[in-house]
Design brief:
Layout: H1 14-50, H2 53-79, H3 84-102, H4 108-122, H5 126-134, H6 142-150, H7 152-170, H8 173-179, H9 182-194, H10 225-233, H11 236-265, H12 271-299, H13 306-326, H14 331-337, H15 339-345, H16 349-358, H17 365-381, H18 384-399, H19 401-434
Length: 435
């Protein structure tokens, strides 16, 4: 982290900070809504177009993640040098357009092209948002702020599940993609018209002028992707947080994509029932996201390594609860048993992302966030849904479609435990760094 002085952060009106946070959280919610829309409708898409589970895993996971993660790094490099608000607005417009095009797909190749387009757009939304929020909230409030921002994920999952199922039942799965592409465009226009680009580093303890980087400064204190990589190499806690996020996302994204299919295929629920009863479960993730950031901020001054300890303990508790939910004998029992572990599974977002921002200086924050997202998405998002789909396809001849998917999801849950251990290791590295 850049050296700081006792200088006070630049004043920003609380109302302005909360308005920006709210708008960015809604943009993030639309981001996840468009992802979940594909997951909740994939049974309809599979029957209409004629796809196999491994193809659905590619479309919902690997193909999407490759472009989302890889392009996120150069886009974040650009975000560290340009107008971030306009960049996020352009990204939202792009992914919304390709969401609409998803509804026009006639085969696997068409679907792949549309999902890649969505991924390219979404690659420009998240990392720049973290950078912007760091310029509206001081260090001791970033965990909570990013936790609130992260509410967009469960909110988007809820909206995608409920609205996608309702629109598909009332109209068609194609119409669902057309209609739910509109909110992203509306929010993009709202951002450009109402939010001004903040000064970088204005909420850090050292004023931006005091953090100016000179040509002979160490590489890790300069801006750019190379400097961000160098900084991460010199900060092992960041890499451990990235490994924890990747393991958690492997299990998480696998669940998000395949639980709707599991409830229909293995537990015999209808699509409208899945939309109605599963969607509220994701709302509990909102409490987990906010509570995780708040707890980490609260304990950090007294407990070294709090940003790793809080999510690590939460996931140790969540892992066996997820297993119990998947072994339940009915769809409603599974949904009810998913409530508590779903809440706990979102605790990691605020602490992890705040730790990454606090451990980096303003000139590389978007790039550091993008590198962590690269590792997270390639290993987690890219492999999780595909691994479950491929394992399910392999086991189907032996176990049948329903039980094959159940066994595959149980195997994927084990990565939550790996993530918990990585978070605890990150906490240890945090303590050593601050000792």
């Amino acid at each position: 982290m850049a050296e700081t002085t006792d200088a006070s952060p630049s004043p920003v009106r609380a109302g302005t900070s909360w308005y920006v946070l709210t708008v960015l959280m809604l943009v993030y919610a639309v981001n996840f809504m468009d992802r979940q829309l594909f997951a909740v409708l994939q049974e309809r898409i599979r029957d209409d177009i004629g796809l196999q589970d491994w193809q659905l895993g590619l479309l919902g996971g690997t193909m999407f993640a490759l472009f989302y993660a890889i392009l996120g790094v150069p886009i974040a490099w650009f975000a560290d040098r340009t107008h971030r608000i306009r960049l996020i607005a352009m990204a939202a417009t792009l992914w919304s357009g390709f969401t609409a095009l998803t509804g026009m797909a006639q085969g696997f190749v068409h679907l792949a092209a549309a999902r890649i387009g969505v991924a390219v757009g979404e690659a420009g939304g998240v990392a720049p948002s973290y950078s912007v929020l760091s310029d509206f909230f001081a260090e001791h409030r970033r965990g909570f702020a990013i936790g609130v921002f992260s509410v967009g994920a469960p909110l988007g999952l809820t909206a995608g599940t409920l609205l996608g199922a309702m629109l598909a039942d009332a109209l068609s799965w194609r119409a669902a993609f057309y209609i739910l592409a509109l909110p992203g465009i509306v929010l993009a226009v709202l951002m450009v018209l109402t939010i001004r680009e903040p000064a970088r580093g204005q909420m850090d303890r050292a004023a931006p002028a005091q953090q100016k980087v000179t040509p002979d400064a160490p590489l890790a204190s300069r801006s750019g992707t190379l400097a961000a990589f160098a900084h991460m190499v010199q900060t092992p806690a960041l890499f451990m947080f990235a490994a924890a996020a990747a393991s958690t996302s492997f299990a998480g994204y696998a669940l998000y994509q395949w639980v709707p299919s599991f409830l229909q295929r293995s537990q015999g629920m209808s699509l409208d029932a899945v939309g109605m009863y599963l969607s509220p479960v994701f709302l509990f993730g909102m409490a987990g996201a906010v509570a995780g950031g708040w707890l980490a901020d609260r304990f950090a001054p007294k407990v070294r390594g709090a940003y790793g300890l809080v999510p690590g303990i939460a996931q140790l508790i969540a892992t066996p609860l997820f297993i119990i939910a998947l072994l339940a004998g009915s769809g409603m029992a599974t949904i009810l048993l998913l409530i508590v572990p779903t809440l706990l599974s979102y605790v990691w977002l605020g602490p992890t992302l705040a730790a990454a921002q606090n451990l980096s200086h303003p000139g590389i924050r978007a790039s550091v966030a993008a590198i962590i997202a690269l590792i997270n998405n390639l290993l987690g998002f890219g492999l999780g849904p595909l691994a479950i789909g491929s394992l399910s396809s392999t086991l189907t001849p032996m176990l049948g479609a329903g039980e094959a998917l159940r066994v595959s999801l149980l195997a994927g849950i084990s990565l939550y435990l790996v993530g918990a251990l990585c978070f605890l290791a990150a906490a240890h590295l945090e303590r050593r760094r601050t000792a």
